[in-house]
Amino acid sequence: KLQSDALREAISTIVAQSKEKQRKFTETIELQIGLKNYDPQKDKRFSGSVKLPHIPRPKMKICMLGDAQHVEEAEKIGLDYMDVEALKKLNKNKKLVKKLAKKYHAFLASESVIKQIPRLLGPGLNKAGKCCIRASESLESKVNETKAMVKFQLKKVLCMGVAVGNVAMEEKQIFQ
After folding, report:
1. Which of 82, 84, 116, 164 measures 20 to 30 Å from 38, CA to CA?
2. What share of the chain is helix, strand, coil (3-state, %, to 5)?
């Protein structure tokens, strides 16, 4: 159980300490959750994602893998993009695919391209855990939704950490 008073206190302490010792970047606030009475060997491991009311990482890098229409839309809102031709140039080169996966936090893909990605790139993006999110409705809203999404996954360790905000946000926003 998580007590809201303890959480509020922790948030205000974090914000106060970050103001004392200024850094040259916006610090991200992460929530660490430890599970008790849970055996990852016997019990099922799980993963999922939660949409937060505010964007915890505003500088999150997203790349659009799309057809001509989506590429044009991505260009308008200043989003990085790659079309099918650019993906073909990677030619399943593992090093280049890995480099691409490291460069971005998430990928959006148009319906027509999403089926071709495994053929064009191989398993690289899946292994990195950054496989594509379908971009069907307006691209800008999808980008903001992706930025507000937080993924969590329970592996062998009984501790999960997720980014919930940054020190530039108000305490109330972080608490939500």
Report:
1. 164
2. 40, 20, 40
Catalogue all structural domains in the chain, each as residue range(s) with its CATH number.
4-46+154-175 (no CATH), 62-147 (3.40.50.790)
Residue-wise pLDDT tens digits, 119-172: 766 666 665 556 556 555 666 667 666 666 666 666 666 666 666 665 555 555
Of 107, 69, 65, nearest in space to 86 by CA: 65
Q: What are phi and psi of 21, to 5 degrees?
A: -110, 90
pTM, entire model: 0.54
Cβ-Cβ contacts under 8 Å for 40 (sequence gap 6 or more): 154, 155, 156, 157, 158
